[in-house]
Hints:
There is one protein chain. The chain is α/β, with parallel strands linked by helices. The protein has two domains: 3-20 and 65-171, Rossmann fold (3-Layer(aba) Sandwich); 24-58, no CATH class. It is 51% helix and 13% strand. It has a four-stranded parallel beta sheet, sandwiched between helices. β3, α5 and β4 form a beta-alpha-beta unit. α1 (25-41) crosses α2 (47-57). The longest helix is centred in the first third of the chain and has 17 residues, at 25-41. The radius of gyration is 18 Å and the shape is globular.
Amino acid sequence: MSAEGRDQHAVVLVGHGSVAADVPRSLVQRLRALEAERRSTGGQLSDEERDLDARIRHWPRTPATDPYKAGIDAIAEALRIRVGHVVVAFNEYCAPSLEDAVGALALAGTTRITIVTTMLTPGGVHSEVEIPETVRALREAHPDVVLRYAWPFDLGAVATLLADACEVKASGP
């Protein structure tokens, strides 16, 4: 069957994101100051904030300079075994953004995308506010793509995951 006739599905695994250890602190401080100013005034993203965000997100990373990204990449690899096509995205400080990841998948012809976050519990602004707002905007930008946000999680299932980890640790070294 041709690519046009296929229903292509992908999962976008969204992590929080972290600043690489070797990014100069002055860049991070300036970005945070610009973000705080924009939020307090309700203003728009400035060119300087946009440029700093891009510079920090695209900073070269290794497992030593960004162990968080390495961990998300490892989860994505394990998830690929179970669900197939998985790409990683980050809420902040690391590339790609959710917008960039979904945009690339849509451009490649993906017709169904499930967005799942590593943020497990309710109460977080990223998982409860920012990601849903981004998903709404992405639905408008990509009307031919079915976007599903697989959150909130069943807290009983999260508790089972944690209990299983406790059992493994208790029986291990």
